[in-house]
Automatic annotation (TrEMBL):
This is Enterochelin ABC transporter permease. One of its GO terms (molecular function) is transmembrane transporter activity. The chain crosses the membrane at residues 6-26, 38-57, 77-96, 103-122, 128-154, 175-196, 223-251, 263-283, 289-310. The keyword S-adenosyl-L-methionine does not apply. It comes from Paenibacillus polymyxa (Bacillus polymyxa). One of its GO terms (cellular component) is plasma membrane. It is found in: Cell membrane. It comes from the Bacteria.
Length: 316
């Protein structure tokens, strides 16, 4: 089947699910409910698009289809920031209650951490992407340990607020944050567009990319900064969704069956919107909001991750 036709089918499926989410059981007071549902749809597209795009870039750079950007510790850093805010300032002061301030602080800290990590790893020759992954894994474990240490010391009511932030939620997305995210993401996607043409060559591996004349280190550094910004914005907007990138990127590879990123990237974004809209429908209509989108996605993603490991093991 033509790749463009496959993308068209995925886009149509995403639109159908979005329409179902918006219009199923729409109450008579639609003028109240409709803007809130549309706000969630905007969050689906922004978050899903960012995570899918960032994961495809990250897996191409690392040449590994079971890694996600979360391995460098950005999700763990987000939880450490939220825990530190509650631990240091409690839940009353402005920094704990202002979503705008929290959003800017979280994005700024995560991008700063990623920038320092990349600077530390890439400032000398001979250090590569796998050293970055190992050090990121160590930092992620450190951040989780610090968060756990502070969680056992704080008040139980404040601990419950931290637990709420550890699960992604599309129910209370701030409208101002959506507009701010749109503005930043448009700039990031416009900047990233110039590097998309190199992804097909990068997928061949470091040696082949260098032999074909690509300025490998220059492109890799900028792509990783783009990944860090996209993941930081999506995490700060709705919360961490660990397995979403793994699911949507690998489903896109299996559906498209091509190495060309001009097809894989839009397909993964469509799959991501389908996953978020479908899981939100399940959470609201089937589970009656007794669970969250991130719990459903992480459960499906965990099973899918085991399937990928077993499949790779058979191929060895």
């Amino acid at each position: 089947m033509n790749p463009k036709l496959k993308i068209g089918i995925l886009a149509a499926a995403a639109l159908v699910l979005i329409a179902a989410f918006v219009f199923i059981d729409l109450p008579h007071t639609w003028h109240y409910a409709l803007p809130r549902r549309l706000k969630k749809v905007a969050a689906f597209i922004l978050t899903g698009g960012s995570i899918a795009f960032a994961t495809v870039i990250f897996q191409t750079v690392t040449n590994n289809k079971i890694l996600t950007p979360g391995i460098i510790g950005l999700d763990s850093l987000y939880m450490l920031i939220q825990t530190t805010i509650i631990f240091a300032f409690g839940s009353v002061p402005l920094i704990s209650t202002s979503k705008e301030l929290n959003f800017l602080l979280s994005v700024g800290m995560m991008v700063l951490f990623a920038g320092l990590l990349y600077k530390l790893i890439f400032h000398k020759d001979g250090r590569g992407i796998y050293v970055l992954l190992l050090i990121g894994l160590v930092f992620g474990t450190l951040f989780n340990s610090l968060s756990t240490f502070m969680e056992v010391l704080i008040d139980p009511n404040e601990f419950a607020k931290i637990q709420d932030k550890s699960f992604a939620s599309f129910s209370n997305v701030n409208t101002e944050l959506l507009w701010l995210s749109v503005f930043v993401l448009v700039l990031v996607f416009a900047y990233a567009w110039r590097f998309i043409k190199y992804l097909d060559v990068l997928s061949l591996g470091r040696e082949h990319a260098i032999n074909l004349g690509l300025p490998y280190s220059y492109i890799i550094k900028r792509l990783l900064i783009i990944v860090a910004i996209l993941i930081s914005i999506s995490t700060a907007l709705v919360g961490p969704i660990t397995f979403l990138g793994l699911i949507v990127a690998n489903v896109a590879y299996q559906v498209m069956k091509t190495y060309q990123h001009r097809y894989i990237i839009p397909a993964s974004i469509c799959v991501s919107v389908i996953a978020l809209a479908g899981c939100q429908l399940l959470a609201e209509r089937v589970f009656d909001l007794s669970t969250t989108v991130s719990v459903i996605i992480n459960f499906i993603g965990g099973v899918y991750f085991l399937y990928l490991l077993l499949r790779e093991n058979k191929s060895w």
